[in-house]
Design a protein that fits this description.
3-stranded antiparallel β-sheet; 5 strands; about 5% strand; two-stranded antiparallel sheet; mainly alpha
Length: about 300
């Protein structure tokens, strides 16, 4: 009777199939396929219930195959996340009793680099290419990622409602979202519409599509502006930092910037403490009592 009630053992390959089906519509599907192939080399033919957390940890890559350099902890955590997803899906399907425990590798603190409005104006002025001026200005005005900017078509722009749609195919999270156009972004869009017959909003002066920024122009402009250790993605950090400094709530910023979790925007929270000021003076000591030179309390407010 006990044999009749016993569930059939599931193989690792079956969990991989669940994992690939789960992620087939995601933008990172090719990466998921690559990592699935990597783990199949280690656990193909194994029963899921027999694979331990220690074995999974030891299977994680040590060196980058292409360069031979040590794998970063961030990369280790991405591999870990994918194989843990395989086991999590198997657990939800009732194939295994529990998901093996594999600790995350410690990653360095998230780098947040931003510049003031004065430095931003100087940066734009020091760019030599007009299309680079527009791209960087748009990033500072909207917080859009590079891929979102260079894949934006005129079909995605709604000037009347002041939004540009980031489609599923172009969003980092594979989820469509509206990109709010403030007055600066709207003026820039209208200016480009007058001289642009290309399908894409941001093109070179020759109307050829752009796939990447001109890094030489960007780096030179940073140098001329006295801006060090700064990347194009830091324009997005700058936009988010300005929002927090202006009082935009973190949950609102999360939706504006298309982040998936509130944890991803908490790195900007320290830039505005106004919401704490009203409570900060609730507890004081020196200003609420008068003490003489002998230490006797003469008055308490």
């Amino acid at each position: 009777m006990s044999r009749l009630n016993k569930k059939p053992e599931r193989l690792f390959e079956e969990a991989v199939i669940l994992f690939l089906r789960d992620g087939q519509d995601q933008k990172s599907f090719k990466t998921k396929q690559s990592r699935a192939e990597y783990f199949l080399k280690h656990f193909s033919g194994r029963e899921l219930s027999s694979i331990t957390g220690e074995e999974i940890r030891e299977s994680l890559p040590v060196k980058v195959e292409r360069t031979g350099k040590p794998v970063s902890n961030a990369t280790l955590n991405r591999y870990r996340a994918d194989i843990m997803r395989m086991f999590s899906l198997a657990h939800k399907s009732g194939w295994i009793v529990a998901v093996p425990y594999v600790p995350r590798s410690k990653e360095p603190n998230v780098r947040v680099r931003w510049i003031t409005r004065e430095k931003a104006v100087l940066l734009i002025q020091n760019l030599s290419l007009d299309w680079m001026k527009d791209v960087c200005s748009f990033a500072l005005s909207t917080g859009a990622r590079m891929t979102e900017i260079f894949t934006m078509t005129w079909h995605n722009v709604d000037v009347v409602n002041r939004i540009a749609s980031v489609t599923n195919d172009n969003a980092k999270s594979s989820k469509a979202r509206p990109l709010i156009l403030n007055s600066d972004a709207l003026a820039l869009i209208r200016k480009r519409r007058l001289k642009n017959d290309c399908e894409y909003v941001f093109t070179r002066e020759t109307l050829k599509r752009v796939y990447d920024i001109d890094r030489r122009d960007f780096n030179k402009a940073c140098e001329l502006s006295g801006i060090q250790d700064f990347t194009f993605h830091d324009l997005r950090h700058t936009w988010a930092s300005w929002h927090v400094q202006a009082g935009t709530p973190l949950y609102t910023l999360k939706d504006l910037g298309g982040w998936e979790t509130i944890e991803m925007v908490k790195k900007y929270a320290h830039l505005n403490a106004e919401h704490l000021l009203q409570y900060g003076s609730n507890v004081t000591f020196a200003t609420q009592s008068t003490i003489d030179i002998n230490g006797t309390i003469l008055h308490t407010a």
